[in-house]
Amino acid sequence: MEPKPVADFPAVTGAQPWIRKVRTLFRRLDSQGRGSLGVDNFLDLASRLLSSFPKAENFYSDELVQGMIHLWYGIICQEGEEHQRTRLKMNESQFIEAMLKCINKKFKEEFVQFVISPFFDVADANRDGFIEQPEFNLIMAAWRADPKESELVFRLLDIKENKKHLSKIQFEGLMAEYFFDETLKGKTIKVWGPLINYKRPEDYPDCECGPTWEGKMRTMFRRLDISQSGKLRCHDFLQIARSLAQRNHLDKAKSDAVMRTMLEIWVHYISVDKDGHHFTELTEKGFIHNLRSMINGQFRHALDQFGWTFFKAVEVEGRGFISVAEYRNLQEAWHVGRAEAEGMFKVLDTDKDGKISSDEYLSAWVEYFLGEDSSSPYKTFFGPIISKPPASERQD
User: Fold this and answer.
1) Alpha-carbon distance values, 67 to 71, 78, 122 (Å)
2) Which domain holds residue 52?
3) Which of 21, 167, 355, 389 is deepest in the core (most CB within 10 A)?
4) How far apart are CA 172 and CA 54, in angstroms?
5) How does pLDDT run across 261-319, given as a tens digit for each residue?
6) For the domain that residue 174 is a member of, what is the CATH number?
């Protein structure tokens, strides 16, 4: 495989294969499943590499950290004052948009200086201008690339000379192909794992909030109403988060991510109306009314973030899929019955391999909230659709 320097790639247009690559990379960088990226994620990337190369010279260690800081503040995150960007987080859609803005400009212009050199120089311990396969594997592991794909890519790059090492030019060619090639033909296409391929919320038309959608939201309300009081309160959301953390023995980072997500759903989308008024409790009617006013706005763009957090919470071993037991724990935290959960697992497992990938899970998650097809197999994601309001809300 002949390396192709970054300068030889044509301008990125934002074609679907490229967007799938960026979405996949986003998920790898979002190691805690928070559904958003900030400067901390890039510092985590630097930390993982420095932990793998503890004997790296101070100069190159500093170069790596400064490179990651510049990659965020100076290239990707360009909105607002720099001091405000310290706490800025980007969801998947925002990250793709930011990458589209910088990919053909500063990202490409400074690619070698701030992406290639910092990683390569830390790994090139003997300063001979080459890295061997174990060193290459550690670099790619820091990026959370797929280990098997990393080994395959190394062999493809090294196949001509068979010297068991790669030059900086070859490393540049590998990384450049992933970031700048918009086809599905590249040798590096799966290095960060299979490309994400589920339908994005942005790809759905505006939701008309018809009877099927309303029935699903009624069902959702009943699942959230843990106390079965007929009203939703913040503590219902907290209880679901605690139950999910306990059932799956989540560590503090994942437990915090789930708790934060449930609070964000309540504070920003459920307990507030379109005019910004907040409520301490909501009836089923108010819940549906608020969702109807939110579903075609920012809530739509946050759906990916929420679904990804729940998937990562139960994907306890980081394998990229969840088992039937893990899925059952997730659904039972929402008070979905065991039989219903196991039945839906079979629906979600489209390739019948006995496990659910993030694509399979998030396809159903997004479809549930934005789809209005009454024949969709995902309409019972949270149990049978409840089409009628409670007796207390029915008109005579």
Assistant:
1) 6, 16, 12
2) 6-180
3) 21
4) 23
5) 899 899 988 888 777 788 899 999 999 998 998 899 888 888 888 898 899 888 866 67
6) 1.10.238.10
Give the rounded distance of the alpha carbon of 261 from its chain centre: 13
Asked if residues 360 and 350 have their Cβ atoms less than 8 Å apart, the reply is yes
pLDDT digits (tens, 9 = 90+) for 187-233: 888 888 888 888 889 889 999 999 999 999 999 999 999 888 999 99
Q: Does residue 196 sit within a domain? A: no
Joined tokens for residue 289? 């009314």
Residues 249 and 340 both lie in one domain: yes
Residues in the chain: 396
pLDDT at 273: 76
Residue that is written with structure tokens 């900030």 in the block: 38
Distance between CA atoms of residues 64 and 143, nearest Å: 13
Do 36 and 173 fall into the same domain? yes
Q: Which two tokens stand for residue 23?
A: 């979405």
Token pair of 131, please?
């890295």
C-alpha–C-alpha distance, residues 325 and 248, integer Å: 10
The percent of residues above 70 in pLDDT, for the chain, comes to: 94
What pLDDT digit, counting tens, does each position of 62-73 carry? 999 999 999 998
pLDDT band of 107, cuts 50, 70, 90: very high
* C-alpha dist (Å) from residue 176 to 22, 214, 305, 316: 13, 46, 27, 32
pTM for this predicted structure: 0.80
Number of domains making up the chain = 2
User: Whole-angstrom Cα distance, residue 270 to residue 299?
Assistant: 10
What does residue 357 show for φ and ψ, rounded to 5 degrees?
Answer: -85, 170
Of the residues 148, 180, 212, the one at which a domain ends: 180
